[in-house]
Design brief:
With 177 residues, the protein is of the alpha+beta class. The protein has one helix and eight strands; from the N terminus they run H-E-E-E-E-E-E-E-E. The strands form two sheets. The protein has a four-stranded antiparallel β-sheet, with no helix packed on it. A four-stranded antiparallel β-sheet has the order 2-7-4-5, with no helix packed on it.
Length: 177
Amino acid sequence: MALLSYIKTLWVNGQAPARNETNLNKQEQGIYDVTEETITNTSAIEILNDRVDGIPRDYYYNKTIGFVVPAETFVEAGRLTQVITAGTWEIKFSFTFDYNVSGKSAFFRFSIDGGATWTEEFRKEIKYGTDHVPIYYSYPSVLLDGQIDIIFQARKEAAGDMMNISFLDIILDKKLN
């Protein structure tokens, strides 16, 4: 029930309207209606807050700290495996790395099916060997019920170079439908 506008009663001692059964029952009914509407709206707000604030919205992440990239072939730098429910998910990678050689490239790729298939590799060329490079990558994907196995890999251009991933966050965030 939606409340309509309320017409206030102005009470003045010794003047109309009288304090009688009709007027007192009008007040009681108004108090009852407001109480019922408040309870209903509070329940609806709690349900909406659960969806908006993420309870029980799904959010998973894995953090890797201080990973030394050992080779010029791809190696696993981080992994997130999770059983999920169907829906639209945002897959995110946030990481920083440094590479001690100017003019070389760092290469990255990922898989969301445990390594059965891989994205095209993407690369970042290093301008200065002292750079500490931040990267953020995000994309939505419609996924089915089941297990997702996200693997993030990195490689450096040459075997003798030093490449370090300071931190890597792999994030899986279910979006509201």
